[in-house]
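Team,

Forwarding the record for the chain on the shared tracking sheet. I've put the sequence and predicted structure together so nobody has to dig through attachments.
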Amino acid sequence: MATRRATRTQEEENPDIKDILTCISKKLDNIGESLQQIVDHQHKEERNTSECFEQFNRSMSTISNEIGNALDKTNHINMENQVKNQRQKISRIWNNHLNKRKQLYWHSLNSENTALIYETWINKEKKILPRKFLIKSIANEDINETRIRQNSAVENFRNELALLNVRAERHKSKCKQTEEEMKKFLEDRFTGHTLTELKNLWHEDVTHEESKSLKKWESKQIWLEKYEAEFKHESFLKPPRKYNESKPTGDSRQQDRR
């Protein structure tokens, strides 16, 4: 009996090994969780650090691009100012050549297109003559003399048509020559970007002046078409001019007198 009491006392003083192992296991689990938390925290810190570096790199790239764009814009402005300064230095020669070419282009356009219309007039069965070639009526004039003057008027009109064609070619040739002179002038004095931009500016000015000439021709063409539609002088006798009769513009009147 004494032996049983001793055994029970020993069991009470020495817990079951299973409980001890369970306790140790729980503590190890707690330690493992703590270590995992430490590792996770470290990984999180590493990710945060990596994200910070990535954000820093993106910011630096953006700043670098903005600086590059600003420098490009500054260089572009500087080059534009340089071109404008060079353009200003040669403004007298530039404007002289531009005005000369403008006049030559207009005379070429006017002569060529007028000749085309006159060609249709002279080839009609019932010919149409410009007013300046119509003959005056002479009282009691012999019919044969009238016919001679009528034939002479038609012949003068043919000569005018031939002159217009010759003038158109002459003005066209001089216009091309003026263009070549300006091109050579620029190429002898400038190179690279400045030369390219000056040529572009010259082309813009030339195109602008040509568009003005084309618009001027449209006005004269309308007047000529109206004259053709209202022409009723098969005998080529010049009618008295009406007080309010419309006339072509100054340039076209000057061309008609030539």
